Amino acid sequence: MIIIKIMGASKTEHFTDQQNAIAILAKALGHPARVAIMDYLLEADACICGDIVNELPLAQPTVSQHLKELKNAGLIKGNIEGNAICYCIDEKALDQMQNYFAHISTRLSQKKNNCC
Amino acid sequence: MIIIKIMGASKTEHFTDQQNAIAILAKALGHPARVAIMDYLLEADACICGDIVNELPLAQPTVSQHLKELKNAGLIKGNIEGNAICYCIDEKALDQMQNYFAHISTRLSQKKNNCC
DNA sequence: TTATCATATTGCAATATTACGATAAATAAT
DNA sequence: ATTATTTATCGTAATATTGCAATATGATAA
Question: Fewer beta carbons within 10 Å, N or C terminal of chain A?
Fold first, then answer.
């Protein structure tokens, strides 16, 4: 038997689909620029990529990369709007996160054996 | 004026405290092993570090490191319990996340100009 | 067609994360 | 005191992330 150690990569195959799904969503929100993009999409009247670039203190390629990560995680979706691209929050992913934290909250209030 | 480019580091100073706070918590949950730790602490009757090590498919130093990250983010807290250490979920951080997602959900249902 | 505008991709440098063996530190048991 | 048990830290290797200049792509305008 040969064991090859691959370091720096998470062993996703050892965890449940649910755990991996939450981790992917959480990771996508694990950068302030991406939280700021969500905030913008939530509050602004538009969702044009160029507006987001102007709003953030980051260069256009960097913002494009962050948008791509949010999109890959399923947190936002993009629509071609003429020349521009309109990004919007994908409610399904957010519902998933909301349900996850609601479940934790409920479960915590049931538990009485917390030792800390 | 001298501008020093520091790459690979996020420019946290350009974002709001709230955005940074959410990002820190989300980042800590952005790995399936750490989600699995939270799941364990939520469902198990104990919260001993050794039990967590046995539960996870990772070596003890790796689990210790993940626990440290969860603790640094404020998601868990640890108590010395004789020879062992008992880790528990910190409700404050989870409330923060729950509020964040609840706020997004509420705001989304108010919005009608979603273009996607 | 050519120029312009908006966004994506490439390439690369710097830093961060992940993982684990070896070892340390701290307490408990003998 | 010595040994075992439990958890943390160190050192290090591999991979991932972050950021941006340069460039490519694609759609609209002239």
Answer: N
| pLDDT tens figures, B54-84 | 999 999 999 999 999 999 999 999 999 888 9
| Contact between residue A55 and residue A63 where contact means Cβ atoms under 8 Å apart | no
Rg of chain A, C-alpha, whole Å? 18
Q: Which residue of A has its CA nearest to B20?
A: A32
Provide the number of structural domains found in chain B: 1
A29 within some domain: yes
Full residue range of the structural domain in which residue B94 is found = 18-104
List, as ranges, residues 85-114 from A with C-beta within 8 Å of B: 86-89, 91, 94-95, 97-98, 101-102, 104-105, 107-108, 111, 113-114
- Burial of A96 per CB tally in 10 Å (0-12, 13-18, 19+): middle
